[in-house]
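Input (structure):
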């Protein structure tokens, strides 16, 4: 209405008197503006600005979350880090020869010291120059077998020949001691199988069969879930004092790639059937969220009321759901379904964002019983270094179970991923960034366990950390267990996968930084590498232990990060949880449950 009046006035040619009157009116009356009423564009802008400022000041996390939601709303607005919108973006992933060769030198520094001081022993202590065995019955090639495929991949022929000769002449599984079913499978059985695939040398397959046959009785429980320990000479499964009459979920569900590979190689169904039965029992026991508690009861096949987490005792359950689907060349929908359900549960219950910087991390769910006996689940913002495998795993899952085309481009186009694929890809990418943030320590190494800040944690003071911290660490006191770095591979594993899927140089740069920190703080001048007791203290105090996964995983993934992508391509190989590559194959047996 007011608009119409204004227009009419302008068109009229006013008399001088009217002109003056109009000027006075203009000066002393408030002219009605466009959009009569309180919500003019300008006032809306101010309301918005004041509300925004207020929100940012009083509740920054809410602001960050809302902002993210807006960003993730309509599809075309979503920014999916590490993907592309272009069509012609095939990247070349050639070797970085200098860095790759520096990793080979590191491997030799580790191996030659072990060979000199402790050849044949299961474990190595580089400071005292000693080897020890897992049991008094004698070693089972824990270190030699775990390392030999890395030698084949790195082309270390002399070292390989000597290691092979030890396996041929000295390795025996006739050991009357109790060995961990899971560790023996992933390190020794997995190592033998990879060595066989990479060399075609039947020695390794014969040894693998001998070991697996000795392990089969581990599955002789009422439910079919395995005993956590196995006596290799007596061929009998036993429980582990640490975990009463239970088996941890990751231990029961991280045997499948290895036993299935052996079944395929030997064309014998028994290995396949034993580990498939485990998956059937776990699927039937499943919790409604798709998540899994960390203990199972082999007696009745049910979950034991226990924590839910992506860290220790839970981690590789999720990893192997995906990798069983990949190993069988995407032909087993049952594993895909289990994986999809689990990722739904992870996204809705475990993924969190940190207070200040909005870092993506994963929490644990801890069950608590109140006096009335009711159970509730408490979210604890604790993340093991072990969880850092999960960033790369989520990205690998996104391109296999969350893609509209197969294979996706490198890097993927955002349009090639489903909503769920984008969700997992983004969470995976961001989780890797978070893991890299936990390297912001005095050594550049990341601690074994970090906690993220939450409002109820009771930490305050101006020196309080913003986002994450090492629980129990106090200046001048003995560092807590959480502060150590034991040469773990998980972040590097994720960097390797992320690099192969994107070709993005940032992942190589991250990997090189970690490698340099290991060289600086873990390398023992006389040979070998050792754990660090506190990542936040320099000069460091080393612990007299070189974990076998340094040579099987950490250095292998670093090597592959800088090696040409045609070496062990992810389209043809799947890595077991100890970084032993196994080929993808089309199975001749179908899984017997759904
Ligand atoms: C990308 O390339 C494919 C063929 O390679 C074509 O079918 C498609 O339309 C292209 N998409 C865009 C967004 O250019
Ligand atoms: C460990 O076992 C190996 C056999 O694999 C043996 O040669 C060595 O003497 C044992 N070491 C110790 C410290 O018992
Ligand atoms: C996996 O499946 C794809 C598509 O069906 C096929 O091209 C490829 O050869 C298969 N790989 C193996 C190892 O069977």
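Output (sequence):
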């Amino acid at each position: 209405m007011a608009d119409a009046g204004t227009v009419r006035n302008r068109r009229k040619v006013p008399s001088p008197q009217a002109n003056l009157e109009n000027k006075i009116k203009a000066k002393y009356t408030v002219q009605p503006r466009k959009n009569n009423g309180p919500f003019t564009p300008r006032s809306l802008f101010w309301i918005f600005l004041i509300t925004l400022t207020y929100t940012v000041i009083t509740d920054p996390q809410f602001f960050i979350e809302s902002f993210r939601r807006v960003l993730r709303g309509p599809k075309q607005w979503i920014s999916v880090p590490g993907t592309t919108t272009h069509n012609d973006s095939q990247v070349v992933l050639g070797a970085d020869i200098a860095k790759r060769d520096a990793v080979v030198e590191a491997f030799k520094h580790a191996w030659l010291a072990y060979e000199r001081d402790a050849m044949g022993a299961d474990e190595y202590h580089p400071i005292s120059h000693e080897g020890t065995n897992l049991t008094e019955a004698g070693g089972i090639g824990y270190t030699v077998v775990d390392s030999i495929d890395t030698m084949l991949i790195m082309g270390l022929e002399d070292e390989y020949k000597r290691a092979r000769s030890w396996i041929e002449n000295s390795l025996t599984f006739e050991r009357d001691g109790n060995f961990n079913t899971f560790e023996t499978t992933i390190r020794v059985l997995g190592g033998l199988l990879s060595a066989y695939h990479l060399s075609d040398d039947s020695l390794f397959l014969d040894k693998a069969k001998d070991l697996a046959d000795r392990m089969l009785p581990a599955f002789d429980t009422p439910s079919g879930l395995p005993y956590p320990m196995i006596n290799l000479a007596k061929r009998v499964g036993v429980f582990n004092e640490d975990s009463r009459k239970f088996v941890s979920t990751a231990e029961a569900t991280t045997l499948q790639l290895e036993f299935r590979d052996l079944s395929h190689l030997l064309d014998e169904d028994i290995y396949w059937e034993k580990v498939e039965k485990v998956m059937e029992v776990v699927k039937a026991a499943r919790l409604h969220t798709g998540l899994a508690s960390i203990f199972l009861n082999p007696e009745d096949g049910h979950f034991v009321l226990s924590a839910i987490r992506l860290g220790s005792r839970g981690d590789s359950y999720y990893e192997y759901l995906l990798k069983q689907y990949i190993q069988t060349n995407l032909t087993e929908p049952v594993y895909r379904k289990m994986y999809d359900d689990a990722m739904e549960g992870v996204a809705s219950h475990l993924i969190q964002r940190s207070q200040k910087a909005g870092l993506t991390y994963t929490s644990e769910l801890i069950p608590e019983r109140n006096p009335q006996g009711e159970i509730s689940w408490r979210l604890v913002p604790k993340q093991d270094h072990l969880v850092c495998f999960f960033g790369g795993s989520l990205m690998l899952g996104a391109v296999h179970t969350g893609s509209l085309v197969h294979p996706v481009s490198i890097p993927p186009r955002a349009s090639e991923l489903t909503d769920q694929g984008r969700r997992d890809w983004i969470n995976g990418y961001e989780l890797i960034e978070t893991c890299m943030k936990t390297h912001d320590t005095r050594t550049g190494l990341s601690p074994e366990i970090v906690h993220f800040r939450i409002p109820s944690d009771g930490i305050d003071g101006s020196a309080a950390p913003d986002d994450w911290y090492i629980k129990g660490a106090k200046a001048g006191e003995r560092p807590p267990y959480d502060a150590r770095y034991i040469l773990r591979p998980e972040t590097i594993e994720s960097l390797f996968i992320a690099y192969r899927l994107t070709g993005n140089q940032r992942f190589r740069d991250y990997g090189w930084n970690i490698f340099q920190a290991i060289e600086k703080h873990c390398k023992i001048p006389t040979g070998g590498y050792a754990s660090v007791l506190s990542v936040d203290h320099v000069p460091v105090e080393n612990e007299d232990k070189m974990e076998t996964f340094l040579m099987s995983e950490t250095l292998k993934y670093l090597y592959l990060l800088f090696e040409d992508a045609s070496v062990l391509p992810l389209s043809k190989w799947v890595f077991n949880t100890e970084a032993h590559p196994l080929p993808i194959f089309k199975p001749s047996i179908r899984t017997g449950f759904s």
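Notes: Residues 1-17, 23-33 have pLDDT under 50 and may be disordered. The chain has 19 helices and 19 strands.
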